[in-house]
Amino acid sequence: MQTVLITGGTGLVGTMLAKKLQAKGYELIILTRKLPADNSLSKNRISYAQWDIDRQSFDIAAIQKADYIIHLAGAGVVNRKWTEAYKKEIQDSRTQSSLLIIDALQKNTNKVKAVISISAIGWYGADKDPVQPFTESDASDNNFLGETCRLWEESIQPVGQLRKRLVIFRSGIVLSSDGGAFAEFRKPLRFGIASILGNGEQVISWIHIDDLCRLFIAGIENEQLSGAYNAVAPIPTTNKALTLTLAKEMRGNFFIPMYVPGFILRLMLGDRSVEVLKSATVSCEKLQKTGFSFLYPTIEAAIKSLNKK
To answer: What is this structure's pTM?
Structure first.
């Protein structure tokens, strides 16, 4: 079976994707800074290889074994306050990891057929008035996340010059029962509070983690996929609709809706509050034209699925 090399393989998406690739019979190599104590290629067909982005070092054997590379590495965007130092870390973790991959591919004989990289819909910024769903041909926004995504995608573009297929998935907010944004939405509901952020009308373009993982597998298996695609469900939602749908699924009628004013969010989150309060309506029409079908096209279907896990 073919071998997939994964960067960021221990994160939320990477962990789930590794399980799904493993179930399909792929051999997996997870790139990591620190090797686990037991690093044998064993019954689960997963091994680990070392790389160090800061030192620009890479286990050459790993790149030589790989048929495909899935590039997920990058410091968390909402994990910490956006100081100037952390903003630089967010950008460098993405661009420098891409440059390390490019360098390894250029300098070493390999059989890599394609690189499938994640990006984000932060590329687009906020909705304009009147709203026209963003498409892949729209320019990147000039705010911090827009610039980050532009640099991120530019850093992996040389893959194409190496005559290898490059696929970039601009992911919406990933909903998973194992953590991330969905866990944050659930927390207040444990106490019967449905926390609606701002006025709640801001549009959220989202994707169920199972569909995102299926997209990455399609990126490997469908050789017609090339270039950038918006990885978002066909039907966006709003913060209020998501929160109330989740509240009804978790609590029935036993919850209290509570609005959290924008100024409170700005005090709590600083610059990150812009991402919480903005509307971003993003189209997946280009992706659907490739024949990809979503398991969870609506927020209702996604929440019902995630609440069972």
So the answer is: 0.94
